[in-house]
Amino acid sequence: MVGTMNRAKVELLWEFVKREVARQYRGSGLGVAWTVLNPLFMLLVYTVVFSTLLGFRVKGGAGGTALREAINYALMIFSGLVPFRVLSDAMARSTVCISSNADLVKRVVFPAEVLPLSAALSAFANGLFGLVVLLVMTLAAQGRLQATWLLLPALWVVELVLAAAVSYFLAGAATLVRDIVALVPYVTMALMFLTPIVYPLEALPARFQRLEMYNPAAIIVLSHRNAVLYGEQPLWAPLGVLAAVSIVLLLAGRRWFDAQKRFFPEVL
Amino acid sequence: MSSRNGQSSGRAVVAPAEPRQAGVLVRAGGLGKRYRIYKSPYLRLLEWGALGRARLHADFWALRNVSFELHSGDKLGVMGMNGAGKSTLLALVAGILHPDEGTVETTGRVAALLELAAGFHRDFTGRENIFLAGQLRGLTRRQMNAYLDDIIEFAEIGDFIEQPVRTYSSGMLMRLAFSVATTVTPDVLIVDEVISVGDAFFQHKCNQRMRELTAGGTALIFVSHSTDQIRAICNRGLVLDRGRPIYLGSSERAADTYLKHIREREAARAAEAARASLAGLAAAAAERRRRQGFPPSHAFSYGVADLAEIVSVEVLNSRGEAADSFAVNEDVTLRMEAYVKAPVQNLGASFLVRDRAGVDLIGTTSHHYGYTVSGPLVGQVIAFTFTFRNVLREGHYSVSVAVNRLSDAGNPRSGLTIHQLDNVAGYRSSGLPDLDVYHRVYVPVEVRVD
Fold first, then answer.
1. CATH code of residue B384
2. Which of A11, A259, A265 sits opposite B135 (nearest CB)?
3. Which of A148, A174, B175, B181 makes the best surface tag, with the fewest CB within 10 Å?
4. B302/B231 same-domain check
5. How far is A230 from chain B (nearest CA, A)?
């Protein structure tokens, strides 16, 4: 993907992604269903709190019944949560991707760069499961397909590149400074509430709305929501900048990771 | 050649399959590996924050000044006590660690067997792990398929190959790991002590495989505590002591140097122990007993050890060297040292030789010979030496020792045990070379037929 990727490396990457995805559901009765159930529970909580209890209203649909409002609100959250979780999931996985394979890193010479990439890819795979559920729910609620759904692959590619870039940096940094592993959940929680996920962008004062255009998560979340729910265009300009920055970050992240990985066997 | 040195962050390269390499396959020059020791993990962060303006660590050189060249077919045996840097050296050559000083270069495919089952995934089957091992080393499933049957056959795993490796015994894991590492013909093969896990039959098979590979041009680096194994397999030897090379040359000379080195270190340690305080002495004694190979569970001690304590037991031959095998009629010397903790009256020692069934065979006490010790000898070490002729038939015998004192000065039978160690040492009787000993003991018998 970045740098040389021969066939054996691709096979190895595939093994790790399979392992990562399988590992998280092994031994749980509902298995893969948790991939879907987990965000649905979050969705339920946020919808009850913000829409039913606090009475926030969002656009979409013909207003009216409280149930209708709740469904609109739930879809707004879910359409942002699905892409956001790809980023937060990749961050969480990448921080431990080296240390959880310490045995390998310390004893075998192998391309360790597949580990952060597999963290990003397994987060991405889980995200795709969520996307399918989101699209089915949207179709059920709105009763029609949106033409803008065709733009989703482009969005998800940008997301994957960004997730991979972040994963390279975090995997290296968290291995060398273990405190980062403990820090990341707070960062992702803060990022989640700073990004218009459980509230619409319009709920923010105008100057903060402008600031959100510098928040990568917000650019992706808002673009995704536009394309999935409202049949509107993604935020092309900021998204284009983000895509370019992500590519640069990915290349830099890979280089930095390669420079750091010689220290991994010593600190593990 | 793939090269790693202290300056660049060069990566270890697993070369694609290619014709066997010839010439110099491993070249280490002034190789060194340094670890930074921080008293607290926060100091590491502080040092980072200081951007090189503060030095808050101590350097520890796990390995330094190691230079050697291995040509095609060379077999280097690496010896050293624990912590000598053997594993660090192997990890550097394998490319897992990177040198902080000097360089190490390798040519061609490097296969390293550093730890049992390293890289195996516990829940995958043996077959899946073979493919995984290949992928980790840069070989695709298709390429690995060509080797699959050979790997399985050599490992002798049988139908277990379809079972998850977590169900494997350590011997099976080792066989599979060794088979994977050596079937895809390496140019440089690095083997840590892992193969000592296998049974004798498979060890022979491993030795045979290593001989075949090196005969075909592979360079071998082999770590073992067994100087016999090094002599049998290697043509060159390297002895490390606390990270520094103390000998590089023929494997024969290296093995001798290593054994001499161990004896010197042991002697230095023993001399150190003799100077040590009570606590140190007792600890050193326990360590020595452990090193003599007596599992603590087999040594049983009782008695009132507050007056004196046995701190060492040795079985020596007539030349005064530690020995564990004696022929019939050879003199056995038992030397024990007792550390005196309180003023004693009529202190003596005794010993007892037992066979495996627990039958007491030989034994006596110093009191019988009129040797007792009295006086304010606190802090001193008293050595008791018993020499007797081995009259026991072929077999293993245990030795128990005790220090005791007489409650009634005149009567050698009225001993009170102070400290007794049961089955603390032992020796093997090798019998008589040209005469079968049918019963427990052999004493020369004069036979006359009239």
1. 2.70.50.60
2. A11
3. A148
4. no
5. 45
